[in-house]
C-alpha cells in the first residue's frame, strides 16, 4: 500500500511539472503568433469545438450507460449463478441426507464393514447408485465406519479423519470442503453423519464432486464468451472457476482481485489480467457467505463508445480542414482593413513598424501617436499663455473681429465667458526708474510677478486674464455674467489693493486705469482704447492712482486729451520724417505744460509718455528706441532740470536721430506714412473720415495718398475704411443691443438703407439677419 501511495504521488507531481512546462511552451508559442494566425486558429477552434464536445460527451454518455447496463446485467447473472449454485449445494445436501437416512445404510453402519462380505458390498453399491440416479448432480459416495476404521471408498479412512479433525463440525451439521483444500483432495466434498441423529460418532458419509463436474456446471451458467466467473469462499479460496487450475487456490493479498474480494464497494479502478483490463462485479451469498465475482473485458462495453470517438475525431479532422481553408480565406479578407490602416500609418505618418506585424504594429504606432499627442499637449499647455496673449493683443488692437476671435479661442481655456467685459491697465509711474533698476533680462520676470500679483489679488472675487503688451505695463481683462453699476466700484477696490501690493513688494509704484464695462469680446477693443486714454490723465493726477471715468473732471479731460493728442501728433510727424513740424508741435506742447503749472514730476512723466508713445509707433514699424540710442533716454530725461533743457534735447538730439535711423533702417516714408494713416483710421472711424481730409491732415495730395495706400495695403482707401467700419458694425450687432439706426449714425451713414446695403455687400447678409444668426448660434 505504501508503495502504491508513493507511486501515485510521484506520477502526480511528474504530470504537474509536465503540464506547467507544456503551458509555458504553449503560451510562448501563442504569443509569437501573429494576429492573423490567431484569428485563423480561433475560427477553427470555435467552429470545431462544438463537434468535439458533442462527440466526446456522447461517447461518455454511451460508455456510462453501457457500463451501468453491464453492472446491472452482471448483478442479475450473478444472482442467477448464486441461485443455481445454492441449488446445486442444496441438491447435494438433499442427496447426502437421503443416503444418510436410508435404513439399509443405517443398519450397515451398525454391522461390521463389508470387507469380506461380497453380498453386503454389492447391496451398498446398489443403494448408492440408486441415490445417484435420483440426483441431477454427478457424484460418488464414501462411507466411513469409525468403529472399525474402515472406509467404503477408494481412499483411506485417515484421509477423512484428517479433514474431520481440522474442520471439527458441530453436532450433526453437514459441511462442504472445497477442492484442493487439503493434500490429495482434488474434489468437492460434502460430509454428513450416518445415522443422521449421531454426531459423526458412528459413521460418516462423504459425497465427492469432481472439479470437471463443477466446471461443466459453471460453463452452463456463464455469460459472454470472454467473461470470467469466480466463486470464492469466506477464506479467499477459489471454489469454482472456468480454469481448473484456479480451483482450490487462494487469492494472494498482493492481487487486486483479493482487494476487490475484501471490499468490493471500496475498490477503485479496473483489474488487469494478462495485459487486459476487466470490469469487476461481486455478489455475496447469504446462504454460505461465498462471493460470486464476474469479470468482463472493458473493451466489450467501450467498443461502441470508442467507435463514436473515432467517428468524432474523423468528423473533427474533416471539419477542421474545411474550416481552416475557410478561416484562412476569411481572415485574409477581414485583415485587409488592418493592412490598409497599417500602410496609411507607415506612409502618411512615417511611424516605425520595424519587426512588428499587424495590430501589434498599429498598437505600437498608436502608442507613438499618443506619446506625441501628450508631448504636443504639454507644449501647447506651456505655450497657452503666449497664445492667449497674442490673440487678445490682436483683439484689443482691433486687428481681429470678435467672430474670428471666438473661432480661434475654443482651446484657450478662458476662465470666463462674459458676456460683459472690462479692461484694467496698470503702468509703471516712473518708467525711467523702472528701466534703471531692472535690466532687460530681469524685466520679463518683473512683468510676470506683476501679473501674478494682479491675478492673486483678484482670484477670490473675480476671474481675469492678464497680459503684458509693453514694457512696464500690465493689461487685465475681466468677465462678468451681467452688466451692473457695482462693477466699476468693485474693480476700483481691487485695483487699490493691487497698487498697495506693488508698492509693498517693489521699489516703484503703478497707476491703474479702469474702463467701463461693455458687451461681448468685441467691446473689449473699446474698453482697451478707453483704458489707454484714461492712463493719459495720470500725468495730471499724479503717481500711484486708480483712474476711472468718474474721477476725471471735464476740464482735466479736455486738458489731458489735448496733451495726449499733441504727443501723438509729434510721434506722427517724426514717423513721417517731418522733423521741423515735430519741433513746432513740441514747442506748443511745452507752452501748454508751462501754462498749466504742472509739477516737475508730472512734467517728467508727460515727456516720458511722449517717449513711450514714440516707441509704440516705432514698434508698429518693427523698430525700437533702444535700437537707435546707446544711452538710456529715460535716465537722460530725468537728469534735465528745465523745460528748455528738455526742449533742446528732444529737438536737437532725439528727433533728428529718430528720423535718421528710420531712413537708415530702410523703412520707407511711404510705409511709415501709411502706418500712421491706418492708426488714424482706427482712432477716427466714427467721424467723417475721407481721403481728402486724411490727405490734408498728413500734408499729402489725395491721389498720391490713394496710390501709396493701395501699394502698401493692397486695398483702396475707401474700401479699407468701409471694411473696417463694417467689422465694427458686425461686432456691435453681435455683442450689443444697439439699434441698427444708431450703429448707422455712429458710422456716419445718412440712412439705414445705405448702411444695410453696404453691410450686405461686405458681410453677405443684412444687419438684422446677421444679428439673428449670431443670437441663434449663441443660444
Summarize the structure.
This protein is of the alpha+beta class and 779 residues long. Helix 2 packs antiparallel against helix 8 (298-334).
CATH overall fold name of the domain at 47-312: Beta-Lactamase
Return the CATH class of the domain at 47-312.
Alpha Beta
The CATH architecture classification of the domain at 47-312 is 2-Layer Sandwich
Radius of gyration: 63 Å
Number of strands: 16
Domain HTH araC/xylS-type: 675-773
Keywords: Cell membrane, DNA-binding, Membrane, Transcription, Transcription regulation, Transmembrane, Transmembrane helix
InterPro entries: CdaR_GGDEF (IPR041522), dCache_1 (IPR033479), Homeodomain-like_sf (IPR009057), HTH_AraC (IPR018060), HTH_AraC-typ_CS (IPR018062)
Subcellular location: Cell membrane
What does this protein look like?
The chain crosses the membrane at residues 6-27, 39-62, 313-336. Residues 675-773 form the HTH araC/xylS-type domain. Keywords: Cell membrane, DNA-binding, Membrane, Transcription, Transcription regulation, Transmembrane, Transmembrane helix. This is HTH araC/xylS-type domain-containing protein. With 779 residues, the chain is of the alpha+beta class. Among the domains are: 2-46; 47-312, Beta-Lactamase; 717-778, Arc Repressor Mutant, subunit A. Helix content is 62%, strand content 11%. The strands form three sheets. Strands 11, 12, 13, 14, 15 and 16 form a six-stranded mixed sheet that branches. Strand 8 (271-273) and strand 9 (276-284) form a beta hairpin. Helix 2 packs antiparallel against helix 8 (298-334). The model is unreliable at 1-7 and 20-26 (pLDDT under 50).
